[in-house]
Design brief:
This protein has 231 residues and is of the alpha/beta class. Helices cover 43% and strands 19% of the residues. It contains 7 helices and 7 strands. The chain binds NADP nicotinamide-adenine-dinucleotide phosphate (NAP).
Length: 231
């Protein structure tokens, strides 16, 4: 039977491809990001017509409410993929505190806001997947210039482990994937000229399968999804 999955960061890259894959498998996908135009393109490209686009900024409370209303109109949720993310690269000495705040706001508080709002809609047996990065994975090779991004992605790791313990009481699994290099616009900004070994469509296939089945095997886990360290 078709499931209902909400995914953030669906307007491009990994989130876009994951939305198309889940929809093609017959699942209802509530797809969100700020760009209404790109979400329209996504819904248009989806032959199955299983994608419900809803534009919203994860740093804006009214938009969180709007996304939550669409989710509650449609169904309770079988899955939530907190995939949206913002990136910044700059020497630590030059990086203004406002940049740290912005990256925390999108990458961490965005997950906090949306997951708190959607928590009542998450079914028993549902799966929350938080997307972190190898940049936030303890002990991985780190890169200069990534301080704000890596700090935020490491916070996603800690948050996910605690939610895994806390939500278990309600039969909801929470896992965190620390992704390596995937050929998206974010990667091109992070590592100009680098060719990633994984395409967004490949990662979309993996993520689709993981949100649908990963909670049969894992809860509260932080899993590296990377061929090498870091990519
Ligand atoms: N690509 C990689 O190599 C890689 C590696 C490690 C981890 N990751 C992680 O994987 C996830 C997806 O990455 P990607 O490469 O696909 O990134 P991307 O192409 O830059 O896409 C990021 C998505 O997040 C959305 N977004 C950004 N700020 C937002 C906000 N304030 N509110 C709502 N949505 C927002 C963007 O949509 P709008 O601009 O339309 O809002 C976009 O859909 C991210 O969390 C990233 O950190 C990626």
């Amino acid at each position: 039977m078709g499931k209902t999955i909400l995914i953030t960061g669906a307007s491009r890259g990994i989130g876009y491809e994951t939305s198309l894959k889940l929809a093609s498998l017959g699942h209802t996908v509530i797809a969100t990001a700020r760009s209404e135009e790109k979400l329209k393109k996504l819904a248009h490209e989806d032959k199955s017509k299983n994608i419900i686009p809803v534009a919203g900024d994860l740093t804006v409370e009214d938009d969180i409410q709007k996304i939550t209303e669409v989710a509650s109109e449609n169904n309770s949720l079988d899955g939530l993929i907190n995939n949206a993310g913002a990136f910044h690269r700059e020497a630590f000495s030059e990086t203004d505190l406002s940049v740290f705040r912005k990256l925390m706001d999108v990458n961490v508080f965005g997950i906090v806001r949306l997951t708190q709002a959607l928590q009542p809609l998450l079914k028993k047996g549902s799966h929350v997947v938080n997307i972190s990065s190898m940049s936030g994975f303890q002990g991985s090779l780190k890169f200069g210039g990534f301080s704000a991004y890596a700090a935020a992605k490491a916070a996603v790791v800690g948050l996910s482990e605690v939610l895994g313990a806390e939500f278990a009481n309600d039969g909801i699994a929470v896992n965190c994937l620390c992704i390596g290099a995937v050929q998206t616009e974010m990667l091109a900004e992070a590592f100009p000229g680098f060719e990633a070994p994984v395409s967004p469509a490949q990662m979309g296939d993996y993520l689709s399968n993981f949100v649908l089945t990963g909670h049969q095997f894992y809860n509260g886990k932080v899993l590296p999804v990377a061929l090498n360290d870091p990519s």
